[in-house]
Amino acid sequence: MFESMAFDSVSEFLQMGKYTFHVWSVYALFAVFLTVNLYLPLARRRQFIREQQRRALRDSQANQSPDGDDGRSDANGGSE
Amino acid sequence: MWQWFFRLGSPKWFYELSGRWLPWLYVAMTVLLSIGVIWALLFVPQDYQQGDTIRIMYVHVPVASISLACFPLMAVAGVITLVWKMKLADMVAMCAAPIGAWFTAVALATGAIWGQPIWGTWWAWDARLTSMLIQFFLLIGVIALRSAIESPDAAARACALLSIVGAINVPIIKYSVEWWNTLHQPASNFAMDNESPFGPEIWVPLVIMICAVYLFFVISLILSTRNEILVRERRSQWVVDLIAAQKPQGA
Amino acid sequence: MTALTGPQVSTFTAFRATLRRDLLIALKRRNDLLNPLMFFLIVVSLFPLGVSSDPQELTRIAAGTVWVSALLASMLSLDNLYRADYEDGSLEQLLLSPQPLYFLVLAKNIAHWLVSGLPVVLLAPLLAYMLYLPADAYWTLMLTLLLGTPVLSLFGSIGVALTVGLGSRGLILAVIVLPLTVPVLIIGAKAVADASLGLALGMHYSLLGALLALSLSLAPLASAAALKISVN
Q1: Chain C nearest CA to B137, separation (Å)
Q2: pLDDT digits 0-9 by tens, B96-124
Q3: How far is residue B49 from each of residues B3, B120, B199, C59, measured CA to CA in Å?
Q4: Which residues of A touch B52 (CB under 8 A)?
Q5: Domain of A33, in residue numbers
Q6: Has the ipTM of the complex gone over 0.90?
Q7: Any bridge partners for residue C153, and if so which?
């Protein structure tokens, strides 16, 4: 397996012939692209769930006092 | 058949189904991506002309080819939105636009980096780069229209229509740019399509990378569509239950 | 508008009435008529100031400059297309009329082209002269603009129809429409450039003609659908 490698040594691999910058910047960009596009939706999801939980908590506290409904908290109405 | 079709249109059903698929997609993507990247970086032999820049192909070509799939996808979703008024189709189209813009931008950037050693310049008005750039503008237009219209329903239908018009235009733009380019300057010596016949040691890793990047596209589309479902359906009971069932996220 | 509401009115009559009405309104508003032309003139004269006044260099960029400026000028005039009708409610009447919307939209587009595109075509030779375009290319310039500017109006109409209900439309309209016009610009400018080199032009004309035919048949449909979405 190792004899089919395109490089003889680690330093040669890191150097990528004459094209150190070109090859590695493309792969770095690719890595950033993958990470950002997987991380952002997950972060957004966590943030949304946190917001909704906080709102639910506030609403359940507000329901004990008479006029705490802020109009945005009807859990059964709306779409679907 | 139709029952199945409309069930697919139910956001809740999609949310639950995609939740079951996601772990498998993650595993498949990670495996394929690791194999593909290691193969491309370590085992693909240097090209006799391009040297090690051939390794850029294994990022650029998958990203570019999948970015081309974005407009047809949005147009199909647009037709479904306009004809059957299916909410899910609009959510997919809405999430596909920014992801497609990302893919197009990365394809442009990697294309420029690949072109530099071969053309001697970062940017050339090559037919492929140019039509990719125009496609990027079109996607930006769809995103801008979406954010400009306040009513979600009108925005959905307007963007659906614009996506269809754009999808019809993309091939026209592509052919006109190619036509302009071939007459404009001599065909570049940077032949990507008609290169000497590829051996399997070249194209097998390429196929693996294309599959991996395709999975990545699907995963990130599913992830943002799921978010969009949660946001739009936040008042319905199943989302309220689902959020109550999540363990509290730190304040 | 009253002429359009009765069910007994034929499609052709409605088409003619819409065309006539839009032309009359446009002719009454002289400023709206003149502004795109002035804009065209000003943009073209910016190029010698910005690039160079050297005749040889200007000859080289003349074709592209005139075409790009014509494109921008037609962008600028698009806003008039449905705006006033939207504000005074006659657009809603148009959508409610029993005639096929395709022909009414087409009539409005033709009227718009007659008052904004055609003057640009007629003014183009003067500007081409100022940019030292070779004499061989004049007819090509006029002819490609004649074939190309209707396409710009038809494509632009889709964009205006999509954005007519929005508060701030200026830039978003250009962002949506300009990428769609790339093929027209490419073919038109190339035809003029090739004409000044004395090359054969059959293909350029047939491509432009194909684009015009395609947009004549499809773009009004898209505009009509877009109007229905925007006016609710």
Answers
A1: 6
A2: 999 999 999 999 999 889 888 877 888 88
A3: 56, 14, 15, 39
A4: 16-19, 23
A5: 2-59
A6: no
A7: none
